Amino acid sequence: MFGLALEQARWYLPPDFPYTVVKLNTANESFSFIEVADFDTAPEPTIGTVIGVKTDGSCRRMRPPIDPFIYHHKWLFVADDYDGFDVEESKARSRAWMALTDIDRTRIGKRSYWQSKVVPRLHSRETT
Length: 128
Fold this sequence. Notes:
Blueprint: H1 3-10, E1 21-25, E2 30-34, E3 50-53, E4 59-62, H2 87-98, H3 111-127
Antiparallel strand pairs: 1-2, 2-3, 3-4
């Protein structure tokens, strides 16, 4: 349905922009091309530079903030047979952190909160 629009939006990107994730905003049919350099290697990959492309071809480059955002449940971004990372391991990690109590789910998208408040508790669960 949006295949042609996606191809057209790609024309406005710098030719060497290394995006990993493409997000469609269905409200205005714009696309965000998102750089995620550690997608296959990090349990919760870090969102890098984002280039938004509107239907009129206008672009907006957004660099990551000092405390960048991360993706959770990265297994949802790929098919079950994806071979870039262990999909079953990613699903298990999602189940593990979702079972934790007293996590401020409004703050887990920021890498600093995740690293300081969630990851230590995940590691303590793995060792008990």
